[in-house]
Specification:
Elements lengths: L1 H23 L3 H19 L5 H31 L2 H7 L4 H29 L5 H28 L5 H17 L16 H4 L1 H12 L7 H25 L6
Helix pairs in contact: 1-5, 2-3, 2-5, 3-5, 3-6, 3-7, 3-9, 5-6, 6-9, 6-10, 9-10
């Protein structure tokens, strides 16, 4: 029953955080898609290679869930603290895990239209099939969990920082984890430094998606290592978040 209540509260908080904002500003869905498509636009403008399109689309899909996740994990929680919403929620019989999951789930729901849009283009180009979808969906869910819990953990540890500092930090993390690593481009371009992409959740997921589409040749051993690193990294963020998310005891 406790798990059932945690899940119910999670979806309720996600609805509270996403639906009213969407009603007031439905263009936020278009804005999220535009942010994810900005690097893709420049790649198309200044590159003559045809394969750059699919690499950019993969980056856009990863960006749609990752950027929204890390920003919500930091900005939403800092805003909730500022307007005293968080205090009201945790003062109720709501488990801290429900609040954390609800905050993380809200941007994921908002990201779905962008994922459908970019996914449809990928299907049209012939790279996205039911077989590849089996691997893409869990990969995107895991990177969403990793980036959301990272943002949540940072905002929890920096609870004394101002909203401006936290908002700037979320933007820097978004750039650092999405636009700098090989998310919109193939890690093969890094040459001998391609191993760096494995330790970064966003670029690791982008590489796994490219491998499932046949764009990045990886051995079975390499795939196992990459999935293991991704799962361990995400689990570490989640464990740290759940340990720290004990507001009532403080």
């Amino acid at each position: 029953m406790k798990i059932r209540k945690i899940l119910q509260d999670t979806f309720l908080i996600a609805w509270i955080k996403s639906y009213p904002d969407f009603r007031r500003n439905p263009l936020m869905l278009l804005l999220l898609a535009m942010i994810s498509a900005i690097p893709l636009f420049f790649m198309l403008m200044f590159s003559s290679g045809g394969s750059v399109i699919i690499h950019g689309l993969i980056g856009a899909m990863v960006s749609s869930v990752s950027f929204a996740g890390v920003m919500a994990g930091i900005q939403d929680i800092s805003w909730d603290r500022y307007v005293k919403i968080r205090e009201m929620i945790v003062a109720m019989p709501v488990h801290p895990a429900s609040y954390a999951l609800g905050i993380a789930l809200a941007p994921l729901l908002i990201s779905i239209p962008s994922l459908i849009f970019f996914g449809a283009i990928t299907v049209f180009l012939g790279f996205l099939t039911l077989e590849t979808l089996v691997w893409i969906v869990p990969a995107l869910i895991i990177v969403w969990a990793a980036m959301s819990t990272m943002g949540f953990m940072i905002s929890t540890y920096l609870f004394k920082s101002s909203m401006m500092v936290l908002n700037n930090l979320s933007n820097l993390l978004g750039i650092g984890f999405i636009f700098i690593p090989p998310v919109y481009f193939s890690e093969a371009q890094l040459g001998s430094l391609s191993w760096i992409s494995i330790i970064i959740p966003t670029s690791n997921v982008a590489g796994l998606i490219r491998s499932s589409m046949g764009l990045l040749p990886l051995s079975i051993e390499a795939l196992i290592v990459r999935w293991a690193v991704l799962i361990i990294t995400t689990s570490a963020f989640i464990i740290l978040t759940f340990i720290k998310a004990k507001w009532r005891e403080k």
